[in-house]
């Protein structure tokens, strides 16, 4: 089972690993595009106003531009510890046992606008680049990633659970992947998407899938696993699951 997570805009700034080594990252098929994007991001950071415009940043966020300038020299840490925020707080990677962490490292991967896909243990620096960013002089990120990342994901040979946000799914859709939508049910029975709850519950789903000893191989079996964990999950017969949160 491969569980695809969305990245986060916020990232832990620390690390004690050696500088970024693109050749050491998993999925070497992605190396040429990674090299192209890393080079472009570093060059762009030399012009802070242009970098702000391309990345949608304000002058108060120039620390993000500085991180991009140091992409090739700053310390790294495992990708699953680099990303932060609501989803990653709920995942709680640092609270796992050694055996659970080993399973998580095998199963979890993060979609990345800069690096395409990083496995949990891949050593990466802090950076700033979003799926919707447009880098001067380059095609769109979707045009760059889809031809190389799409085939990699399609050929994984295992059940793919795609928890990425829509913008990152668009970079490289995975045919047949199981998706999970999170809806909050109101007292009147109507349902709505709540961003914070969506991220938190996807983080909890990711934790469950990262640590379970089960190996679901279909949407039906995945739904059964989630329901055994006490979640209200609906399945319409396709590859989309809906996690319904009860009224508060």
TrEMBL record:
Signal peptide positions on this chain: none
Annotated GO biological process: response to hydroperoxide
GO cellular component: cytosol
Top-rank lineage group of the source organism: Bacteria
Name assigned to this protein: Peroxide stress protein YaaA
InterPro entries xrefs: YaaA
Stored PANTHER family: PEROXIDE STRESS RESISTANCE PROTEIN YAAA, PEROXIDE STRESS RESPONSE PROTEIN YAAA
